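Much of our argument rests on the idea that a fold can be written as discrete symbols. In the encoding step, the backbone of a single protein was reduced to a row of integers, each denoting a local shape. We regard such an encoding as a compact summary of how the chain folds. The record that follows shows the chain in one-letter code together with its fold in token form:
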Amino acid sequence: MEPLIRLENLTREYTQGDRLVQALGGVSLEINQGDFVAIMGPSGCGKSTLMHTIGFLLSPTSGKYLFEGRDAGSLTEDERAEIRNGKIGFVFQAFNLLPRTSVLENVLLPVEYAPRTDFKAARRRALMLLERVGLSHRVDAMPNQLSGGEQQRAAIARALINDPPLILADEPTGNLDSKTSDEVIDIIQGLNREGSTIVMVTHELDIAQHAARQVRMRDGLIVSE
């Protein structure tokens, strides 16, 4: 079966002043549907660049990226945006909730960019997801009225609203205390058990150990799995 994600000798370079920086130095990796992969490594090793490339937020300088068998390099910007919104759910360390928008409206935000959406059905799904992550009593709250853990749970519900096959989580517990981190990881593990593919960037070993696969990076390369 075709992997969900196939990376072949992927590189990513950018200029910093008059210096050329190689963020990815030739990364090859396969991720199958249903995998739970933790990407680890020191700050500046390329792990977030790799995740942003997988999420179609950055384009590689060279190499090949296949998503569901489709060559990312041959996609139009509209096709990339469609995959980003419909096939990938993003969870970030900083939560990235809109501050003047209720929890429910934040969760529904990706639906506004999805074609042919049944908004009544989407609202029902959003309420179901908020109940699942333990926020059914906070649907009308504003983000600044939530704890960090509640904000991250709202962000997870938002990532799931379009039922994407892939969840990308970039340091999802980085701003949380250990108890709240455990609660968030429990939710992520539950999603994986139900079939979601999870790719999670973390520098915390105890968080990475919840993943079935641990990929270690250094200096823009995968050094072990």
About this structure: The CA atoms of residues 37 and 213 lie 5 Å apart. The longest helix spans residues 178-193.
